[in-house]
Design a protein that fits this description.
Length: about 400
């Protein structure tokens, strides 16, 4: 079985870690090759990580808006590699990859991680993505909640498969106190509790809500410190909010890190304040580290965070509720520890790459045996893409 993963990777984020983890966990007779659009060269750190793990990689030359040329380039690689199936991750890979797979006569699977509606351009691209998903041989959804959204977009139920995100628990199971000491050094004075968050600094993540909650909590518990890992377009705006809220000594923007798995086990709590999610990898990583989570109840998050068991759920956009639940976790140490232990147990049972790989192996076998590759519907759809999008 030869699987080709098509990416558009400006940095090594959640989807990138997912495909690398899956490829490493698949059976030995399943070979994965990674193709990525260049993204002005920003794809190279991801491709380098893939090469370090022993996978073949290709930095593509063509890109949007030259959709026809890009599709032909991808199709050429599919033929050269003798690909059995193409997996697409994101709206650009979906649009171009679908057409390329049809040109090469290869079944195509889209992995729907979620939609953010972050900007007008993103909303337009996501609208196109919803259309193209209807024409895929399968649409893998990372949560049941995302599957419901994909179904509402018009994708037939028989083509939808739920395969949840996963993590490798091993890197999160070793606590190195030096990383807690490093985080403490980021504050003017040591903090009794350290609360972590992570993600792209963009509107859908709701980090402004987290800062508002931090401002409320600091009045009750001034010795608590917040560390936010990540970078993105809202960094300067969030920094101004931190300053305006008087949190310069309390809330740290730690930037993008490739070693978050070393920091999380040294934290007391992880917080997710998103407005929308597919299935957040940072939550799975927190559970792997044995750290409870307080999270907004959006997307697939409630499928992982069980309220009162391994964390707490709150409504999105409610800093007061977020503050109260953070306080509830931190004020009962024995409950905090037991929540972390239950989360770690759940992660090991259900959300490992080994378990995920078994599901993908069945999917690949099923989709490759399918005969629905060149129906009239897909031919008509190809015409729409060529005439309307290229």
């Amino acid at each position: 079985m030869r699987i080709v993963q098509l990416m558009a990777s400006p940095f090594v984020g959640g989807p990138e870690r997912q495909v690398l983890g899956l490829a490493s966990a698949l059976p030995a007779d399943h070979k994965t090759v990674f193709l990525s659009f260049s993204e002005r060269g920003l794809c190279r750190p991801f491709l380098e990580q893939a090469r370090q793990r022993g996978f073949e990689t290709v930095e593509l030359f063509e890109n949007a808006p030259h959709l026809r040329r890009a599709a032909r380039e991808v199709a050429g690689h599919l033929r050269r590699l003798g690909a059995d199936v193409l997996c697409c991750n994101g709206y650009k890979p979906d649009v171009i990859g679908w057409r390329a797979a049809r040109l090469a006569g290869v079944p195509v699977v889209a992995v729907s991680h979620g939609w953010t509606a972050a900007t007008l351009k993103v909303r337009l691209n996501e609208a196109i993505d919803r259309l193209v998903l209807r024409w895929m041989d399968r649409a893998v959804c990372v949560s049941a909640a995302q599957a419901a959204r994909v179904r509402r977009a018009g994708v037939h139920s028989e083509r939808i498969v739920v395969i949840r995100n996963a993590v490798d628990p091993e890197p999160f199971e070793h606590v190195d106190p030096s990383y807690r000491a490093l985080m403490q050094s980021w504050f003017p004075r040591p903090r009794t509790r350290l609360i972590a968050a992570a993600g792209r600094l963009s509107p859908e993540k709701g980090f402004d809500q987290l800062i508002a909650a931090a401002a409320l909590l600091s009045k009750r518990e001034p010795e608590v410190g917040f560390v936010l890992f990540g970078d993105g377009p809202l960094r300067e705006k969030l920094a101004r909010q931190i300053e305006a809220s008087g949190l310069m000594d309390t809330f740290v923007l730690a930037g993008f890190r490739t070693d978050v798995e070393r920091f999380l086990p040294c934290c007391d709590l992880v917080v997710l304040s998103s407005w929308t999610e597919g299935l957040p990898v940072i939550v799975l990583e927190a559970l792997a580290a044995g750290v409870p989570v307080v999270a907004s109840a959006v997307g697939g998050t409630p499928e992982v965070v069980h309220d009162g068991v391994n964390g707490f759920l709150v409504p999105p956009g409610d800093p007061a509720a977020l503050t109260q639940r953070i306080h509830d976790v931190l004020s009962h140490e024995s409950r905090r520890r037991s929540m972390g232990e239950r989360g770690q147990q759940l992660l090991r049972q259900q959300f490992t790459f080994h378990a995920q790989a078994k599901e993908y192996t069945c999917l690949f076998k099923d989709v490759c045996s399918s005969s629905r590759l060149h129906s009239r519907a897909t031919v008509r759809a190809a015409t729409i893409v060529d005439q309307g999008l290229a």
